[in-house]
């Protein structure tokens, strides 16, 4: 029988997208305490079932599992560029690996054409036929047509021949952005990539005793024991704190933490690290949508993964492009860091001033860089309050000064001042959570 916690989660999952919920309404409808309702709502928020919006409340949203990594197919490309399929529709499900712009002679093109690639070209039938013969799809730009012979070849080979009214530059930009987004999604590491599977996980049933826990723990320092039913459903967690001072014959069912904090395989590692740091947890159970235990994830694995992400970087995001333009000033000392940012036309809003979003990301990058200089590698900005005094013009040089107000092992509060030509243009107070490996 499902627990009250599970019943609430199933109820929330069954609500229509956009439905508003509250602790009180859930508690009344499900006939549970407000504490139980609150824990279930927080779990639903973690898994992406609901979202809390300021001055609106908590609403049901569409859940988008982050482990469902989509690859760019020719069918998706048709929608992306509003293309028309002239032939080879049987190959629309194939994946697009790269694209080639056919602005060269057929002999020179041949070295660049590979299977599952896309050749972007105009009204050159010889080059179109060459692409199909060598296993590549064809995208004809400018609204031009092709011959029946090329279409027949495409149908026989199962390679799409597409037509779009866009010009080559526009199409190449759109496809490049889609491929870049795909690469970024693939670089986002989820729990599924780092958790310890069930076959290697130590667990026990509620009837086990404190003596059994001690024997299973062995020499492990960071140890938490998932408690499961005979069918494998998670019902609780036991840590050394719960067994301290208890008799060896005490059953774990009496002392276990019921409705424990859990994670799903599709959650990204940063979210899990934030949960672990905020709740002081060394181990989290990994469950599926039916609360069946599938493994555990440890603090050590999470923060080792975060360290690798910091070293490798992820794709080419907006944050990356702004961060790359932040230059560390020689005036930087241990007590403060000074960065400079040369604003570009891409950073301005419709009024001609640098946008607030760019300023926020510049502050974020400066604060993260300062903490990195002090050995804090895994930094998550929790709160950023930005006050802008005057607009910043395009092609101005912004000086960003970061001064720590409070710096502990797990948190940091920093004062950030932005100036141009010696005048203060903005001020920010930033609070960060430091996800350290312990």
Automatic annotation (TrEMBL):
Keywords: CBS domain
Domain CBS: 256-312
Record Pfam families: CBS, DRTGG
SMART domains named among the record's database cross-references: CBS
InterPro entries assigned: CBS_dom, CBS_dom_sf, Diverse_CBS-Domain, DRTGG, HotDog_dom_sf, Ser_kin/Pase_Hpr-like_N_sf, WH-like_DNA-bd_sf, WH_DNA-bd_sf
PROSITE patterns to which the protein is assigned, alphabetical: CBS
PANTHER family from the UniProt entry: CBS DOMAIN-CONTAINING PROTEIN (PTHR43080:SF2), CBS DOMAIN-CONTAINING PROTEIN CBSX3, MITOCHONDRIAL (PTHR43080)
Protein name: Transcriptional regulator
Species of provenance: Lacticaseibacillus nasuensis JCM 17158
């Amino acid at each position: 029988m499902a627990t009250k916690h599970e019943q609430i989660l199933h109820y929330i999952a069954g609500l229509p997208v956009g439905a508003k919920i509250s602790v009180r309404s859930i508690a009344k409808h499900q006939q549970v305490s407000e504490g139980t309702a609150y824990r279930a709502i927080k779990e639903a928020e973690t898994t992406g079932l609901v979202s809390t919006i300021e001055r609106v409340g908590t609403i049901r949203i569409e859940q988008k599992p982050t482990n469902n990594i989509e690859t760019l197919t020719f069918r998706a490309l048709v929608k992306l560029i509003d293309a028309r399929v002239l032939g080879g529709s049987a190959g629309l499900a194939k994946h697009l690996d790269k694209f080639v712009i056919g602005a060269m002679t057929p002999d020179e093109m041949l070295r660049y054409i590979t299977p599952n690639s896309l050749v972007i070209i105009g009204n050159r039938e010889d080059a179109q036929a060459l692409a199909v013969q060598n296993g590549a799809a064809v995208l004809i730009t400018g609204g031009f047509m092709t011959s029946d012979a090329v279409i027949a070849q495409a149908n026989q080979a199962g390679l799409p021949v597409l037509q779009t009214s866009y010009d080559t530059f526009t199409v190449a930009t759109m496809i490049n952005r889609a491929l870049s987004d795909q690469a970024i999604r693939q670089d986002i590491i989820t729990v599924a990539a780092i958790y310890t599977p069930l076959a290697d996980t130590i667990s026990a049933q509620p009837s086990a005793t404190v003596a059994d826990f001690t024997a299973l723990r062995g020499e492990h320092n960071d140890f938490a024991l998932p408690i499961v039913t005979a069918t494998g459903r998670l019902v609780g967690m036991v840590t050394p704190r719960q067994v301290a001072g208890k008799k060896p014959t005490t059953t774990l069912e009496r002392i276990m933490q019921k409705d424990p904090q859990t994670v799903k395989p599709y959650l990204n590692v940063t979210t899990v690290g934030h949960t672990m740091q905020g709740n002081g947890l060394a181990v989290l159970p990994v469950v599926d949508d039916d609360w069946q235990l599938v493994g555990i994830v440890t603090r050590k694995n999470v923060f080792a993964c975060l360290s690798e992400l910091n070293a490798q970087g992820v794709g080419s995001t907006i944050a990356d492009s702004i961060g790359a333009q932040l230059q560390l000033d020689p005036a930087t000392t241990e007590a403060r860091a000074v960065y400079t940012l040369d604003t570009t036309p891409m950073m301005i809003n419709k009024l001609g001033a640098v946008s607030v979003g760019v300023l926020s990301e510049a502050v974020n990058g400066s604060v993260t860089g300062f903490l990195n200089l002090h050995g804090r590698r895994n930094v998550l900005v929790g709160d950023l309050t930005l006050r802008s005094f005057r607009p910043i013009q395009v092609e101005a040089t912004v000086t960003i000064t970061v001064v720590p107000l409070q710096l502990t092992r797990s948190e940091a509060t920093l004062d950030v001042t932005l100036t141009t030509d010696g005048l203060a243009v903005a001020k920010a107070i930033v609070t960060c959570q430091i996800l350290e490996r312990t």
